């Protein structure tokens, strides 16, 4: 038996596969509360993982500025220490910085002391760089176990997941990625139709993209940028506001 399963009630284990679901399914709450949606259908929270990335993040910041879009960047601690000025620039331009662990290990298989180290090293790198701690955390691959979310909470961080992860790390054409991001526009159109009916409330999307790559700095993410360049004006025309995770829950 995997050690982390010991703390999961036997009745839950008896249902088979539930622990795996709790560890990996983005909206599962088995191993602690996570934020998986924005609180308004008009609010789209765009998030970027695995940076900072000197080859991509500066261009991405310029693109976001063109649409007055604010976003959330979940950073890898060891890259934060390598690129402190880029992290400061990202925060100075109104974006929110989140913790994406020190070295992007799969936390599912780590014990409590290793999880504390992975989260705290990155937490301190961000706090030392910005003079303020991160308030958001996202586990690598979205994988959790019983110690991950409580440790994030001990650092004062809420855990953010997503409603849509289109797979921008896959070697596919830009057109494929653009198509994979279609659900955001579809939801906006559906919500616009619903809002004409009184009393309907709905939530909004959290989109998970990547401006970096956890194994190396300066990785090419041109297709992610191109897909965003396609969608940002269209989403804006559908009435979506591009918000940080702070604004997504406020
Ligand atoms: Zn990641």
| Unique bound compounds | zinc ion
Going by helix content, strand content and strand pairing, the class is: alpha/beta
Helix fraction bin: 40-55%
The low-confidence runs, each spanning 5 or more residues with pLDDT under 50, are 1-15
Distance between the termini: 41 Å
Series of secondary-structure elements, N-terminal to C-terminal: HHEHEHHEHEHEHHEHEH
Work out the helix count: 11
Largest sheet: 5 strands, parallel
How many β-strand stretches? Answer: 7
Measured on Cα atoms, how large is the radius of gyration? 18 Å
What is the mean pLDDT? 91
Gross morphology is globular
Please provide a written account of the structure.
The chain is an alpha/beta fold and 250 residues long. The chain is built from 11 helices and 7 strands. It has helices spanning 10-14, 18-24, 57-66, 77-82, 84-92, 112-130, 148-154, 174-180, 182-194, 222-237, 245-249, and strands at residues 43-51, 72-75, 96-99, 136-137, 158-159, 206-210, 241-243. The strands form 2 sheets. Strands 1, 2, 3, 6 and 7 form a 5-stranded parallel beta sheet that branches. Helix 3 (57-66) runs parallel beside helix 10 and helix 8 crosses helix 10 (222-237). The radius of gyration is 18 Å and the shape is globular.
